[in-house]
Specification:
- The chain starts with a strand and ends with a helix.
- The chain has about 375 residues and is of the alpha/beta class.
- The strands form two sheets. It has an eight-stranded mixed β-sheet with strand order 3-2-1-4-5-6-14-15, sandwiched between helices. It has a seven-stranded mixed β-sheet with strand order 9-8-7-10-11-13-12, with helices on both faces.
- Helices cover about 35% and strands about 15% of the residues.
- It is globular.
């Protein structure tokens, strides 16, 4: 199979979908890999490194001409004309976050689009989302600490505190991969950490394994409101796989926060879990609303591309190898978790949560029906 890796064009997106060692594995198994010129430069990988492993360095159009295209982020509008009729696209898509033009383009060109963020393993976890969730969760607290500094418009609260001075208060909404990794960093900073979720098993686990000053709370509107009001930083980490993130932090809650407080909405890829959030970029990462600094960058791990690219390839490469060897149909029949990643298939919208979020219910076709001859 011919596998293409285009250069990412999203603002400050320096990740690349494949490392040179990943190229080596695919070429070793008889596949042809074409890499767009300078695709890996932001992650510290030169064209020469890819060439040495058997890749062919090509133009943007040639990178998009492959049977299977591996990317990091969803295609932007400027890339729509480059997509080829009937090809396979394997990337983060986040279609439910309101990306109707992209969804319609995928359907029109009969693209089989497989979303990293909706592929599941046998335990129902999200193995291709997890590595970037780890990075985003660990970043989130550092970002909150940065924007709490007075020169950045913050309250001037040091999360770590000091002898005789209270540490800062961090509320983490969601105890999944993002939330648990944010909590690790926050307790390591000596912050006073509150973790909210409705999964009592996850709360019990974090209660047991996390050191430091942490409090787990069962998430209700009332309990969230009481903690948000006194929090110095709120980390939005709530997720419904493939669907729009639940709006758990209301605008009224944001209004109750102290001026100079910070919200880092890691869930912004899926629409955000705060009512006042809107997507931002690394070039212009924050805005202030109701006196609260909002950080809502949609590709947070792109800030650390070397680590992110390695972590992403470690997770996606085994799937890419099977996909190239077996094809979509056979792989989907053998692996129900992989099948859940298929958002569109040859002109059919096959992910129900995406269809509901975009009000395209009439376009929805169950994958099993779409795959039938």
């Amino acid at each position: 199979m011919i596998i293409g890796v285009p250069k990412e064009v999203k603002n400050n997106e320096n990740r690349v979908a494949l490392t040179p060692s990943g190229v080596h594995e695919l070429v070793r198994q008889g596949h042809k890999v074409v890499i767009e010129k300078n695709a890996g430069i932001g992650s510290g990988y030169s064209d020469e490194e890819y060439s040495m492993e058997g890749a062919q360095i090509v133009s943007q159009a040639q990178g998009w001409s492959a049977e299977l295209v591996l990317k990091v982020k969803e295609p932007l509008e400027q890339e729509f004309p480059l997509m080829k009729e009937g090809q396979i696209l394997f990337t983060y898509l986040h279609l439910a976050a309101g990306l109707r033009p992209l969804t319609e383009a995928l359907l029109k060109k009969r693209i089989t689009a497989i979303a990293y963020e909706t592929v599941e393993d046998r335990q129902g976890a999200l193995p291709l989302l997890a590595p970037m969730s780890i990075i985003a969760g660990r970043m989130a607290v550092h970002i909150a600490a940065h924007y709490l500094a007075k020169p950045q418009g913050g309250r001037g609260v040091l999360l770590a505190g000091m002898p005789g001075v209270h540490s800062g208060k961090v509320l983490i909404v969601g105890a999944g991969v993002v939330g648990s990794n944010a909590a690790k960093i926050a307790v390591g900073m000596n912050a006073s950490v509150y973790i909210a979720d409705i999964n009592t098993q996850r709360l019990a686990y974090l209660e047991d394994v996390l050191p430091g000053k942490k409090t787990t709370i069962y998430s209700t509107t009332k309990t969230l409101a009481s903690v948000v009001e006194s929090a110095d930083a709120v980390i939005g980490a709530a997720l419904i796989p493939g669907a729009v993130a639940p709006k758990l932090i209301t605008e009224e809650m944001v209004k109750s926060m102290k001026p100079g407080s910070v919200i880092v909405d890691v869930a912004i890829d899926q629409g955000g879990c705060c009512e006042t959030s809107r997507p931002t970029s690394h070039a212009d990462p924050v805005f202030v609303k109701h006196g609260v600094t909002h950080y809502c960058v949609t590709n947070m791990p792109g800030a650390y591309p070397r680590s992110s690219t390695k972590g992403l390839t470690n997770a996606t490469l085994p799937y890419a190898i099977k996909l190239a060897a077996k094809g979509v149909e056979q792989f989907a029949k053998e692996d129900a978790g992989f099948a859940k990643g298929i958002n569109t298939y040859q002109g059919k919208l096959t992910h129900k949560a995406v269809a509901e979020a975009l009000k395209l219910e009439k376009e929805f076709v169950p994958l099993i029906q779409a795959l039938s001859p």
